[in-house]
Specification:
By secondary structure, this protein is mainly β. Helices cover about 0% and strands about 50% of the residues. It contains no helices and 38 strands. Strands 19, 21, 22, 24, 27, 28, 29 and 31 form an eight-stranded antiparallel β-sheet that branches.
Length: about 425
Amino acid sequence: VRVGEKFAVGGSGYIPNEVITATLGSNTLFSLNANSKGGFSTIVDIPSLANVRYMMSINGTTRPEPITVLKDPVLTIIRDSIPYIYRYSERIHLRGSGFQIGSTISFHIDTVLIAAGIKPDSNYRFDLWLNIPWVPEGKYKVSARINGGDVITADSSFQISRTLRYEFEDMYPPYYQTDDGWSGYMGFIADTTFSQRNTGFFGAKATGRRIGFNFTLPVSDTFDVSYYHGIGRKYGNYDIFIDSILSAKIVGYYDTNYIYDVQRSPKILGNRSFLSKGKHSIEFVCTGTQPTSTEYLLDIDNMILSPSTPYRPFPPDTTLDAPTDGVPKGIIVQTYPNPVTNGTLMLQFSSGATAPLNAMVTLRICDVLGVERLSETFYIADRKLETRSVTVSGLHSGTYFCILTIKNEGKEKTTVSSFIINR
């Protein structure tokens, strides 16, 4: 059990109205009277005790197994399945317990602040939803930082993807439709693989009938667009338009030998498209059907937008060079250790130059969003070897980029390396 949590205690076989006293070690948990049948039931708050195993006794009878009390807080990600992929602007559900009343908590994904000023309730707990920031794809953990001091890390990691997914059943009602349409549950169909087991259904009656939806993009980017839809003997052919521009053509007919059988299509690739942040429209226009199809129906499952551009988590004015390019006068720079565990990052410069150096070095350390967290400027003069230490103890655990710009004899070179702080 954890400090601040509640648990139920009950018993029977006591004398009616007998005084029931429970202890945890030498600490009194509660004292009450048995009911008229000699039983009792109560909810207990775990007091603030040291992290120790305790024996619980009630009126001199000791519970055979000890109870371990954990005083340290715990942070948990609440989700339906593991592993789980989050996308930008989606919400992550966090729950914490055992946090001291009056403490102020900030939350981070890696080095990125996602919430601040959170206070636990009277039960030492919090329960909240937070938005996922725009960060590079990868595996992350959430941490809770208490008043700038102790760091509590979530019990599991999760994956963040830049790919955006839109479920058409979630887009209803459409902004335009010529025939009936609704969100359709596909869970009654055997062996279905439809995302969320739902689709957006459109009961088109003839060629030229159409249905349109609105959707919102959280970022501007160039995307590879793909679709999944239902196929079967009752389905028609459709053109898909994004902002009135043709994106893809789909064929809904598939001979399943059973008229009511519906399956999920393979991935349908659309045109690569630049889409700006904000509202957009997508429209499905029936272009007919196959000769053996019985109707013009449409079941559209989802649309997936995969960014085709690389994510550059560096300041926009940073010029990057490959590490093998070298730097002015053949200066070589190394950063170590990785990960940094003692709060000190070491920079080692070496050169084969025969003349003394007078190189100016500008150091910038940025987090995964390219936000500068530390900077300093210094000179290196030793033509053979020079080592310099940089104090990073003020930075939280996470991934950082070391951006070094070296100027010497009118030449300039910028190199970037990544490192991890793990404390």
